[in-house]
Amino acid sequence: MSRTGTIIVADDDAAIRTVVRQVLVRAGHEVRTTDTVAGLWQLIEAGVGDAVITDVVLPDADGLDAVPRILARRPGLPVIVMSAQNTLATAVRATENGAFEYLPKPFDINKLSAVVSAALEQSQAPARKTAAKEEGDGLPLIGRSPAMQEVYRTIARVVPTDLTVLILGESGTGKELVAKALHDLGSRRTGPFVAVNMAAIPRELIESELFGHERGAFTGAQARAIGRFEQAQGGTLFLDEIGDMPMEAQTRLLRVLQSGEFTTVGGMRPIKADIRIVSATNKDLRRLVDAGLFREDLFYRLNVVPLHLPPLRSRVDDIAELATHFLRRAEAEGLPAKTLEPEAILRLQAHDWPGNVRELENLMRRFAALERSDVISATSVEEALRSERVPSARAESDNRGLAGSVEAHLARYFDTFGDDLPPDGLYERVLAELEKPLLLLSLAATRGNQIRAAKLLGINRNTLRKKLNDRGIDAVALRPAGPPVGRSG
Questions:
Q1: What average pLDDT does the segment 63-68 reach?
Q2: pTM for the full model?
Q3: Average pLDDT over residues 53-80
Q4: Can you say how many angstroms the Cα of residue 455 is from the centroid of all Cα atoms in its chain?
Q5: Strand, coil or helix: what is 33?
Q6: Residue 401 class from Cβ within 10 Å (0-12 exposed, 13-18 middle, 19+ buried)?
Q7: Domain named Response regulatory: which ranges (predicted)?
Q8: How far apart are alpha carbons 57 and 108 in whole angstroms?
């Protein structure tokens, strides 16, 4: 049976105090209420209460600022913070000030009851000193939807740590912004933040790019060069598109995560890696592991704290705030000031946003630059969204086979860059992405028999061996113990 106790509730809204009181009394708790920080402090000094629930905005003071003071006076007293501000800054401040939990308003009464029970069961450790700067709404993440509240809560919990974080989400959801927020709010914020897009680096240069190289390590290495790991020392290394990392580079990264040291290409002296690793991908790494394209042991090393970013279609309530923010940013950059009429916002909310936040930002910048009226209408939004669509690319892909699927995939990929171009070397990256699963599936179909696989593919055995080597595929490891079997048809 859950433990019960005396709960102090501080909120200047009488209706909220009443609702919270009723919920807690029904759960068997005794409740004391107040509408000010002064009243809360009187109860704290009197030794009243086994847990505290406080709002942030109170008439006489900030409830969040009171948390460290409460914990200094009553160490171990669980303090639950609730707020209608619902920003990343609020969630981070609550966690850093030592709050037991942060609940955005409006909250589910069952969630509140469960949090209070957990607070009473678990002794709260003394508060940590604030590590993050109180930067308010200047933080880069925007949105107050329930989906984003979960993101904020996770960020707030991992900011004080050096845990490895894997950010998961579709293209355009803001994965690099989250990685930057983890860096800027954490203890390494005075160190460098180094971002690397794994899909943008030619395969043969990845190890040198990450770890650096010594003079003479390979043809053209005329001087020692430091890699991204050395550049990020004392800070954060963000590995974007980690699912595109070649197998040999995965092996070296795994060794770094296991040992905490790395060596340059051609070097012998180990270098201590004093960095936090944050990675991101829009791919399903578990499926890549199953297909032999990603190391399972590396996946578990990277996936210590998974952080899922919701697509924009799952956070419709944030679209108006995001669109307004992008229009204001464009205005600050010298473009004409624009606003959205209410019907235009409704049309934006009805769109499925395959390009997510990046697509919305590009659209708002286009409106700021090209829309003649100061007020953007629903008709203008409809016309712009209609012109953006790739004609039936998704619908036709199933009927057009592999070519249609590839075309639709590449069209979405180009769309994510807006008016810019993807990084150079696209042909090799696309070819590698297609060729590797083709080779793996062919070897699987022939149970590792390279002669049969080469015949199946219509190439000679030497060509197959070279391709396997180029794509980092260990054909011996794929061969089963039993005799090979053929497939009819």
A1: 88
A2: 0.59
A3: 88
A4: 43
A5: strand
A6: exposed
A7: 6-120
A8: 20
